[in-house]
């Protein structure tokens, strides 16, 4: 697929160096993704080192017991989730 940028005249895959331009842009994009990943990992490591608990908070013991009690009463995971305003996958997680 060939393209020509009207805002950046040097971005043109129609000429003899089209393959070079496309390869260069792909490499730059890949490097950007690597940098974003490194920055994200560094920020998470910094927060973890500072004692910040990462991830969503778990359910309290009372909530877990309520999930099990409702399941024991014959309710489906979906019905329990609706009643407790949580996801069905969270219900399944605490029933496993």
What would you say this structure looks like, in words?
The chain is mostly helical. It has helices at residues 18-49, 61-72, 77-84, 88-95. The radius of gyration is 26 Å and the shape is elongated. The chain starts with 17 loop residues before the first helix and ends with a helix. The model has no long low-confidence stretch (mean pLDDT 91).
The oligomerization state is single chain
Q: What's the overall geometry? A: elongated
Range of helix content: 55-70%
Output mean pLDDT: 91
- From the N-terminal CA to the C-terminal CA, the straight-line distance is 50 Å
Order of helices and strands: HHHH
Structural class: mainly alpha
What fraction strand? under 5%
Rounded to an integer in angstroms, the radius of gyration calculated over CA atoms is: 26 Å
Low-confidence stretches: none
The DSSP helix count reads: 4
Number of strands: 0
Main β sheet profile: none
Brief descriptors of the model:
0% strand, 96 residues, elongated, mainly alpha
Secondary-structure topology with pairs:
Elements: H1 18-49, H2 61-72, H3 77-84, H4 88-95
Helix pairs in contact: 3-4
Summarize the structure.
By secondary structure, the protein is mainly α. The chain has four helices and no strands.
